[in-house]
Amino acid sequence: MSRRSRLLYSLRWRAVGWMEMGLSQADAARRLNVSRSVVQQLWDQYQSEDSVSRRHVSGRPRVTTPAEDRFLALSARRRRSTTVPQLVADHFVASGRKISATTVRRRLHNAGLYARRPVVCVPFNGRQGRARLCWAREHVSWTRQQWASVLFTDESRFTLDSDLGWLLIWREQRTRYHQSNTLERHSYRGAGIIVWAGISLGGHTDLHVFHGGTLTAVRYRDEILDPYVHPCAGEISNDFILILYLIG
């Protein structure tokens, strides 16, 4: 049977009572199923302090102060893409003491900050937003019959070799799409493909993939307008409208 090294508060006083009545430390330890050293330490504590309460154990001292913890969290929030080695260096400059990378990560986790990949998006400025709003207001009263003559088309580029795979930012949980946690990119380096598709109330076109090269006006005519858009225009109506983008 295993011997416990800790006793409940009530059992500690019971052991003291037994020994005051003349019971030996060995017998008291046997009754409580603990080692004799536990009972001996308990009796010594009672004799010197007149108490059997467990002594407070402070544990390992913290290497950073609350102010330094706030400094690390604030630095990570102000510079989301900063690295742990940079934060270690910043802390050393500010306090004159060196801390480990593990300590930095632990303090940031305690502040609710975790290293995650950022969301990458295409820039969207105020002029584009106003153009979209104006377009929506002009067509807000359109009927279903009018929308039936519209073919919406768009193309998207997918990068195969992203140069952002190594980049991490510090952010709180459930804040993935907050503006402060997104990166705007106009272009992407590395290999990629462009896909195109169209959709209307009556159906959709096939997905077209541009294999290599640059998307020029001539190529757009030969690969999109002639094989996809022209047949759709004949099927929809004489009032056919092609919308390439919602903004000009």
Automatic annotation (TrEMBL):
GO terms for cellular component: nucleus. It comes from the Eukaryota. Residues 70-140 form the Transposase Tc1-like domain. It is found in: Nucleus. GO terms for biological process: DNA integration; DNA transposition. InterPro entries: Homeodomain-like_sf (IPR009057), RNaseH_sf (IPR036397), Transposase_Tc1-like (IPR002492). It holds the Pfam family HTH_Tnp_Tc3_2. GO terms for molecular function: DNA binding. This is Transposase Tc1-like domain-containing protein. It comes from Araneus ventricosus. The lineage of its organism: Eukaryota, Metazoa, Ecdysozoa, Arthropoda, Chelicerata.
